[in-house]
């Protein structure tokens, strides 16, 4: 069915569903990125920089 044949309410419902799906995908990507960052830290691929009040330790 073409978008031109749908009612305004149907289009609004589809848009809301697409926005929910996009939000869920963003959350999934954030989780995936965090897991990769933790893995890299665990494997010491990324240096850990620790700062105190005087600067880098």
Description of the structure:
By secondary structure, the chain is mainly alpha-helical. The protein has one domain. It has one helix and two strands, in the order αββ. A two-stranded antiparallel sheet has the order 1-2. The protein is elongated. About 0% of the residues are buried. The mean pLDDT is about 85.
Rg over CA atoms, rounded to whole Å, is 22 Å
The oligomeric status of these chains comes to single chain
The run of helices and strands is: HEE
Structural class: mainly alpha
Q: Strand tally, please?
A: 2
Query: Which bin fits the share of residues in helices?
Result: 55-70%
- Poorly predicted regions are none
Average pLDDT across residues?
Answer: 85
How many domains comprise the coordinates? 1
What shape does the CA trace take?
elongated
Amount of beta strand: 5-15%
Major sheet: size, sense and barrel closure? 2 strands, antiparallel
Looking across the biggest beta sheet, what order are the strands in?
1-2
Q: In angstroms, what separates the terminal alpha carbons?
A: 63 Å
Number of helices: 1
């Amino acid at each position: 069915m073409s978008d031109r044949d749908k009612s305004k309410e149907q289009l609004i419902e589809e848009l809301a569903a697409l926005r929910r799906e996009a939000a869920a995908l963003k959350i999934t990507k954030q989780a995936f990125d965090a897991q990769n960052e933790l893995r890299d830290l665990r494997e010491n691929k990324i240096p850990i920089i620790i700062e105190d009040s005087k600067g880098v330790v």
